[in-house]
Amino acid sequence: MMPCGIQASSHMDAPLITLDPSANTTDVYAFVSYHNLTKYLTVALSVYPHEEPGVGPNRYNFDENVLYTINVATGASLPTAKTPAPKVAPTASYQFVFHNATKTKATIAGSYIGVIDKVDDEAQNLTQHYTVRRIGPGVTNTLLFADGIVPPNNQGLVTPHYNQDEDGNMPAKEGVATTSGLDAYTKGGIFRNSLNYEVFAGQRDDGFYADVQSIFDLDFTFGGGHKPFDSQGGFNVHTIVLNIPISELGDDRQIAGVWATTSRRSTSVLRSSGTAITGPWVQVGRQGNPLFCEALVSLVDKDGYNRLPLSQDVLKFNKYALAPELATLLAVPMDRRSGRTDLAGIFIPDVIKVDLSTSAARLAGGSNTGAAGDDAGYHRLGIFGGDTLYSAIQPGFAGGSDHAIPGGWPNGRRFGDDVVDIAVLAIASDLRTNPPSIVGGPTADVDKVTHNDIGYNKVFPYAATPLNGRNHHHN
User: Fold this and answer.
1) What pLDDT score was predicted for residue 138?
2) What tens digit of pLDDT does each residue of 297-310 get?
3) Counting Cβ atoms within 10 Å, is residue 443 exposed (0-12), middle (13-18) or buried (19+)?
């Protein structure tokens, strides 16, 4: 019997960042994809946890005063556990800055003043615009997108195209398998440039699923006292998705490390004229692999994790991966509670590592009526469910000679990866041996939550349709 108990990715990972939701990173995704014959590293960052669909008169937005950054490191820039204080900057840092534009303030309807037919039409009163800059290599500063536009949130009657039958009273549309099948708002929020980058930023369904309620209700049997449920079901987040042509990072015979940060200005001084003088950006949030800060880092260091750079991970946080307290809570055998170099190899430094040499990752669809199905061979447990990819540059999982590596996390992370179950399996197993000693298998089900509440899109921007304010449910 597999032990069941984990502090899941609740999106409330450290005390201070919970007070700053628009800068609070919930999840980072990274995987290899193809679109229009171009091979991409797809990266995504979600922020603003627990968005209740359909609020008013104001709404959830990206913050004009937050710098959202997705970092990608390759080659000599890729931080490793053997580099305690790397001085090399990421290969590229993609910076997103948002600003608001309001068509009229002579109304109580701050966000919508009518039914929105297309993105940024006259009925979308408050519209967010954004720029995307690539910083790197070195001091190179390239403007990739000068005026991206955020589509509306899914309010309901005023945003009918998000919803089934184009009806604002109906639930949100399930994910689709073709770009032509995307709703009008999502399609209108996708931008491409001459370098073949693709970008989207807007409200999406929260793609993370798990029974977090049981954890913090001290029900480690997951359902011993109640029926387990998806604690994130019924909530939205704000998500940035970027398709980076792998040719922009060099060739594909390499591994990329991906992580994200959020930053605020250190000072802000208002003059009588109303203009502001602001200080330099200071990091307030950070995210790489799912679960690390929540499940492994002790309370005394959680806020520090969000403020410190990757260069401190080996010195400050290595101990939490090598001897995770969670292994004791899971009651794993004594020889698996310390010396966990296998876990440190995943979490230290805390970047999501993606093998760029593989074919495209298999993608999740959905299980609800009308949803596009999963790709053939896709499994929510990744390699623990037999979902593998083949590398051209590294040996297979746990040193295997077949070059088979995980099809999902911890080789990248896809929308749909059941990261709670994967993490429990990894901690309960011993991945230091060849072959590894694996607990569980393709049917393993730790928290009894095996799918998202709405199907994902299998085309860019991949994240699922935001839930309808008039028709959604919390489990």
Assistant:
1) 84
2) 998 999 999 999 99
3) exposed
Task: Please tell me the distance from the alpha carbon of residue 175 to that of residue 422, in angstroms, as a whole number.
Answer: 24
Low-confidence ranges of the chain (pLDDT < 50): 1-9, 85
| DSSP three-state, residue 77 | helix
**Is-contact 344 321, C-beta < 8 A?**
yes
Could you please report the per-residue DSSP string of 423-458?
HHHHHHSBTTSSS-B--S-TT--SSS--S-SSPPPS
Locate tokens 């109640």: which residue? 226
Encoded tokens for 310:
């990757």
Q: How many CB atoms lie within 10 A of CB 251?
A: 10
Positive or negative, the CA dihedral 253, 254, 260, 264 is negative
How far apart (Å, rounded) are the C-alpha atoms in residues 441 and 380?
12
Instruction: Write down the pLDDT at residue 435.
Output: 79
What tokens does 173 get? 């549309």
Tokens for 170?
């109906």
Percentage helix, strand, coil for the chain under 3-state DSSP, each rounded to 5: 20, 25, 55
Q: What's the confidence (pLDDT) of residue 381?
A: 96
Cα distances (Å, whole numbers) of residue 422 to 211, 403, 411, 443: 14, 20, 12, 12
- Distance (Å, rounded) from C-alpha 408 to C-alpha 50? 25
Tokens of 62: 């990206």
Which residues, 6+ apart, have CB-to-CB distance to 82 below 8 Å? none
Q: Could you give the 3-state DSSP secondary structure of residue 230?
A: coil
Cβ contact 101:77 at 8 Å: no
Length of the chain: 475
Pairing label, strands 66-74, 92-102: antiparallel
Provide the greatest CA pair distance for the chain.
Answer: 69
Residues 421 and 381 sit within 8 Å (Cβ to Cβ):
yes
Q: What are phi and psi of 440, to 5 degrees?
A: 85, -165
Is residue 347 a contact partner of residue 321, using CB atoms and an 8 Å limit? yes
